[in-house]
Amino acid sequence: QVQLVESGGGLVQAGGSLRLSCAASGFNFDSYTIGWFRRAPGKEREAVSCINKSEGEYYVDSVKGRFTISQDISKNMVYLQMNSLKPEDTAIYYCAATLRFSASFREDEYDWWGQGTQVTVSS
To answer: E-assigned strands of 2-86?
Structure first.
């Protein structure tokens, strides 16, 4: 059974850092593209970053230079290191997986989703 579980969210002051983790099970991790998405209050879910074994890492412009995605294939883990956090980063963060091997920021191309972890950035 495919399963994704996020962790690492919390309350942090503006300018601070958090590292989110996504634990994957039930499939061959290195055959999938893993994405991070977020849903801010009152907004639809949007892409943040994605990674796969062959193509590497991709970021949307709003987080480029501040966030870093990485993976540990042996542990079936994907991480999102979030630095220089801003209040507008406040959202529920989700990891998602797809068998599509090419990197994608399209939500409808992802098949499996975690339940999300809350990130709140304040002053």
So the answer is: 3-7, 10-13, 18-25, 33-39, 46-52, 56-59, 67-72, 77-82
What distance in Å separates the CA atoms of residue 65 and residue 62, rounded to the nearest whole number? 9
Average predicted confidence (pLDDT) for the chain? 93
Q: What is the CA radius of gyration of the chain?
A: 13
Burial class from Cβ neighbours inside 10 Å (0-12, 13-18, 19+) for residue 28 reads: exposed
Residues shown for the chain: 123
How many CB atoms sit inside 10 A of residue 60's CB? Answer: 15
Q: What is the pairing mode between strands 117-122 and 10-13?
A: parallel
DSSP letters of 46-61? EEEEEEETTTEEEE-T
> Which residues in 71-110 are b (16+ Cβ under 10 Å) and which e?
beeeebebbbebeebeeebbbbbbbbbbeeeebbbeeeeb
> What's the half-sphere exposure (Cβ side, CA atoms, 13 Å) at 83?
7
pLDDT tens track for 15-57: 999 999 999 998 766 678 999 999 999 999 999 999 988 889 9
